[in-house]
């Protein structure tokens, strides 16, 4: 997760956006869309703004339609090529990795993607003294490669519901060096355990 020094805040209720491809609007199911908004103080610059819209309870048919909408969007597929990435991503240092914002992490931790995610694991790659000084609630401290192998690969986390996802989110002080390296290490070790393209953890984020 990038920009950890920021204080992430959960998504607030905002006006319903117009969904792509003329899809109907639903409530209390997360739909993430990107819009262009003018940057304050400038008439020329525009910034991409993520909107997470909460939809009312809906039927299983409506949820399936939302899933189809997400799948049909132009996104890169996760590591086993079974489906697109669920979470909206932001620009990061390493183009081979998927980076998310603090706001998206907050939405995951507060259950706003629970219709799609069965288990989310936040891996804090900092040194133990940094972790003890303060950390994301529920995060696990895995500063060494052997820690990651023991925790995630010796007894892999497998979703009980095959339609839901297990996602792993890595971070360090600035999510610039240690977290990206550990994310790539897990993917390499995970690949080595399987016949391509199968993976224990196809969906990784920084």
TrEMBL record:
GO terms for cellular component: cytoplasm; nucleus. Residues 116-191 form the Rhodanese domain. It comes from the Eukaryota. Pfam families: Rhodanese. GO terms for biological process: cell division; G2/M transition of mitotic cell cycle; positive regulation of G2/M transition of mitotic cell cycle; positive regulation of G2/MI transition of meiotic cell cycle. Coiled coil: none annotated. Keywords: Cell cycle, Cell division, Hydrolase, Mitosis, Protein phosphatase. Residues 1-26 are annotated as: Disordered. InterPro entries: MPI_Phosphatase, Rhodanese-like_dom, Rhodanese-like_dom_sf. GO terms for molecular function: protein tyrosine phosphatase activity. SMART domains: RHOD (SM00450). Its EC number is 3.1.3.48. It catalyses: O-phospho-L-tyrosyl-[protein] + H2O = L-tyrosyl-[protein] + phosphate. Belongs to the MPI phosphatase family. Tyrosine protein phosphatase which functions as a dosage-dependent inducer of mitotic progression. This is M-phase inducer phosphatase. It comes from Alaudala cheleensis. The gene is Cdc25b.
């Amino acid at each position: 997760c990038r920009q950890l020094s920021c204080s992430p805040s959960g998504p607030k209720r905002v006006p319903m956006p117009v969904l792509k491809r003329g899809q109907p609007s639903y409530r209390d199911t997360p739909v993430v869309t990107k819009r262009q908004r003018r940057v304050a103080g400038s008439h020329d610059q525009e910034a991409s703004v993520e909107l997470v819209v909460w939809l009312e309870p809906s039927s299983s048919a409506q949820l399936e339609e939302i899933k189809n909408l997400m799948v049909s969007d132009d996104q890169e597929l996760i590591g086993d090529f079974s489906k697109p990435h669920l979470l909206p991503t932001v620009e990061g240092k390493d183009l081979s990795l998927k980076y998310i914002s603090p706001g998206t992490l907050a939405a995951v931790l507060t259950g706003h993607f629970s219709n799609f995610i069965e288990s989310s694991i936040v891996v804090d790659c900092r040194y133990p003294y940094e972790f003890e000084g303060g950390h994301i609630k529920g995060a696990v401290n895995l500063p060494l490669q052997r820690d990651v192998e023991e925790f995630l690969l010796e007894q892999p986390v497998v979703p009980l519901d095959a339609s839901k996802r297990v996602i792993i989110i890595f971070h360090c002080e600035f999510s610039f060096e240690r977290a990206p390296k550990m994310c790539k290490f897990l993917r390499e070790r995970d690949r080595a355990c399987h016949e391509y393209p199968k993976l224990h953890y196809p969906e990784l984020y920084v």
